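Quick start: what a row looks like.
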Amino acid sequence: MRWPEKPTCHGKLSPVFVYADEEITWRAPDAHHKARTCSYCGSLHPEDLVALLAEPDVRLGGADHKYGWPHKFYIHSSQVSSTGMGKFYNQHILDQGYDAEALEKLLALLYPHGGIRFSLEDGKLKYAAPYPGYQQ
């Protein structure tokens, strides 16, 4: 499987994130975060999220509709950070660099763990939640 080598969803045309002038990268795990995180928004790397979701004590919650759509999930697990909490911004589904297998694996895991079904149609991120404002 091939995963994004760097975050690309924070570009000038992003409808969600403000463009940053500095290079945005995946930060290596450190004393606080046990997984790679985006240097701009702090989101977990999608590959690390997939690996975490395979563990029994990991739970996704709070699919926040703050911006009118479920823009992030909170990840609850002692394996994600020293605080036991991390986050995944769904805009990272649009990062460049996935192969079909990796993207399919990520999308397939978000639904049973978070209750929201995501898909890509003509390069646009679509979602289906049980009802408006849904939070698991």
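That is the whole record. Residues 49 and 88 are 8 Å apart (CA to CA). Strands lie at 26-27, 37-38, 59-64, 72-76, 85-89, 117-121, 124-128.
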